[in-house]
């Protein structure tokens, strides 16, 4: 009987909200890198096409498309690498904090 009472008391305890801040932090990180993934490559594509390749280097319209696309692809890879780095460090930090509890 006493075992059932302990189980009932454990069921009535408020839920543990420590992970809520972790979830909010993860969501903020994901949204931040999603915004970066959309804006950085597109912005670099048009900026480098207009101002760098056509403006400064005097390339033709066709060549500037090609090189601007390469810059945008490199930007995508940089943003992805940064996301993996931040996610890896955030996960290991949360793991260490959970391990100390």
TrEMBL record:
The chain crosses the membrane at residues 27-46, 66-88. InterPro entries: Vma21. It is a multi-pass membrane protein. GO terms for biological process: vacuolar proton-transporting V-type ATPase complex assembly. GO terms for cellular component: endoplasmic reticulum membrane; endoplasmic reticulum-Golgi intermediate compartment membrane; ER to Golgi transport vesicle membrane. It is found in: Endoplasmic reticulum membrane; Endoplasmic reticulum-Golgi intermediate compartment membrane; Cytoplasmic vesicle, COPII-coated vesicle membrane. Keywords: Cytoplasmic vesicle, Endoplasmic reticulum, Membrane, Transmembrane, Transmembrane helix. It comes from the Eukaryota. Associates with the V0 complex of the vacuolar ATPase (V-ATPase). Belongs to the VMA21 family. Required for the assembly of the V0 complex of the vacuolar ATPase (V-ATPase) in the endoplasmic reticulum. HAMAP family: VMA21. This is Vacuolar ATPase assembly integral membrane protein VMA21 isoform X2. The lineage of its organism: Eukaryota, Metazoa, Chordata, Craniata, Vertebrata.
């Amino acid at each position: 009987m006493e075992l059932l009472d302990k189980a009932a008391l454990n069921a009535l305890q408020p839920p543990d909200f420590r992970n809520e801040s972790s979830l909010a932090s993860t969501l903020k990180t994901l949204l931040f890198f999603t915004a970066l993934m959309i804006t950085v490559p597109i912005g670099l594509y048009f900026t480098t096409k207009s101002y760098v390749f056509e403006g400064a280097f005097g390339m033709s319209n066709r060549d500037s498309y090609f090189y601007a696309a390469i810059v945008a692809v490199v930007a995508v890879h940089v943003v992805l690498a940064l996301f993996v780095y931040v996610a890896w460090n955030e996960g290991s930090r949360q793991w260490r904090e959970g391990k100390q509890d």
